[in-house]
Design brief:
By secondary structure, the chain is mainly α. The protein is built from nine helices and no strands.
């Protein structure tokens, strides 16, 4: 009941009336576990570097309301490589001040967002490492394929991705397995007279 009262107070603060108001909750009751709506409007990609940097330090609207504008500007500028600055910091701060987000004890929510961002950063680092390995591997292994007319930088890695699960040239029967996987049989079969 406390949560509903807090929600109704917030609704009145923004100027909505109770007469035609319909409130829906998801089955788990975690209706409060969303970033405040206005946050997403401030970023072209809420999972981008600038958003992740900000959320890892200041995950809630309440946190962003309290942060010094110069510090917020610096975080945005550094994490966006200069694409964002004071203008975006002011818009973000105003959005947080006018936010419809629930206030009160957001500690568990803030921790959950911080942990989510940490997991996301780890996954992005792993993806980056894998992409580097793939590029290196592809560069080393597609040169022969690219000597075939019509096979270029798009088709060579595509062919390798399709073929490598079956074809391992270092194995004794590697080529035979590839031919079998392709459904081909290159053996000559003659009846004898013609």
């Amino acid at each position: 009941m406390e949560g509903l009262n807090l929600l109704m107070t917030k609704i009145k603060q923004v100027g909505f009336s109770n007469e035609n108001l319909l409130i829906g909750m998801e089955a788990t009751g975690h209706y409060w576990m969303t970033l405040y709506h206005e946050y997403a409007e401030q970023f072209s990609d809420i999972f981008g570097a600038a958003s992740r940097a900000l959320l890892s330090l200041y995950p809630t609207a309440e946190d962003i309301k309290k942060i010094d504008i110069r510090k917020l500007t610096r975080i945005l500028k550094e994490s966006s490589k200069g694409h964002m600055g004071r203008k975006q910091a002011n818009r973000l701060k105003n959005a947080a001040k006018n936010s419809f987000s629930l206030s009160g004890s957001n500690l568990s929510f803030a921790m959950e967002i911080k942990f989510f961002v940490q997991r996301m950063n780890v996954l992005l680092e792993q993806i980056e490492k894998l992409e580097k390995q793939i590029k290196k591997y592809m560069k080393e292994n597609q040169s022969l394929l690219r000597t075939i007319p019509g096979i270029g930088p798009v088709w060579a890695p595509t062919i390798l991705a399709e073929v490598l699960p079956f074809f391992h040239p270092e194995e004794k029967n590697g080529a035979r397995k590839l031919v079998a996987a392709a459904g081909l049989d290159v053996r000559l079969n003659e009846s004898g007279d013609s």
